Amino acid sequence: MPRFICNACGTQFPESTEPPTACPICEDERQYVPAGGQSWTEMAALGCDHEIGWTEEADRLFSLKMRPAFAIAQRAFLILHPDGNILWDCVSLIDAATVRRIEGLGGLAHIAISHPHYYSCMAEWSAAFGGVPVHIHEDDAKWVQRDDAAVKFWSGERLPLGAATMIRCGGHFAGASVLSCPWLSGGRGALFSGDTIQVVPDRHHVSFMYSYPNLIPLAAAEITRIVDAVRPFAFDAIYGAFEGRTIARDGKAAVERSAERYLRAIGR
Ligand SMILES: [Zn+2]
Ligand SMILES: [Zn+2]
Asked: What does R_g of the chain's alpha carbons equal in angstroms?
């Protein structure tokens, strides 16, 4: 029985003979239903005309992205560490070549997901690597469409994953999380920020929105909470959700000055 995938947001649904009647993630005000209506595909179909493109972002760090672009053009990261590799965020395709290449680099120990716009085909990815855990903050549990034994809901503000730490920031989603990897960037640290700390096109600032497509900002208290959550962590680089959205240096200062700019703009 097929497991349909939403063409607009890339989320995979549980087995069903007919496509779902709606996609709750697209119907939420943080996404949208396309003008032509909701449409659906399957993994096998995506595998015929898409591939996973690899980009070496830094030493022992790769971004993975479907080519041509699919859904919201998500990018995932393969973060290598001797204690166990981490996949940060996910995409809607997994194929044999990708599995082989990752196995050759030591496999996966964890899949860590920032927020519902990156749930994509996380259960398929987990299954391809022997059911590795998929870590999602419990505050976003209701957005999981295809629940799976591999999905592990975590609670609280931080989750250690070996040398890395998931940090709940909230903001864009209640459980929206980022990942701190202090060994990257030559030991100065890197932050994988998902959508809740969004790297903007100038690659020297970030922004913070409740809804990006519908341009709904966040309140001052939420901005402060996000910045406070990451302030204890050292990071030089920030890897944002989308291709090219990377702050190479001084990421920590970029977050602080971007938050000040944002608060000024909303009159605080
Ligand atoms: Zn959708
Ligand atoms: Zn998002």
From this structure: 18
Rounded CA-CA distance 6/20 in Å is: 9
Centre of ligand 1 to C-alpha 142, Å, is 14
Neighbours of ion ligand 2 (CB under 5 A): 117, 195
11: closest CA among 27, 29, 23? 23
Q: Which residues are in the CB-under-5-Å shell of ion ligand 1?
A: 6, 8-9, 23, 25-26
Mean model confidence pLDDT for the chain: 97
User: Measured between alpha carbons, how far is 34 from 9 in angstroms, rounded to an integer?
Assistant: 10
Per-residue pLDDT tens over the stretch 215-260: 999 999 999 999 999 999 999 999 999 999 999 999 999 999 999 9
Q: φ and ψ at 82, to 5 degrees?
A: -60, -25
pTM equals 0.97
Distance 28 CA to ligand 1 centre (A): 9
pLDDT tens digits, residue range 104-132? 999 999 999 999 999 999 999 999 999 99
CATH topology of domain 3-265: Metallo-beta-lactamase; Chain A (3.60.15)
- How far apart are the CA of 11 and the centre of ligand 1, in A? 6
Q: Where are the domains of the chain?
A: 3-265
Give the ranges where 50-174 is alpha helix by DSSP (H): 96-104, 122-128
Residue 268: per-residue pLDDT: 84
Task: Give residue 256's pLDDT.
Answer: 98
Spacing, Cα 30 to ligand 2 middle (Å) = 7
Q: Determine the Cα–Cα distance for residues 202 and 137; give it in Å rounded to an integer.
A: 30
Ligand nearest the Cα atom of residue 26? 1
State the ligand closest to the CA atom of 34: 1
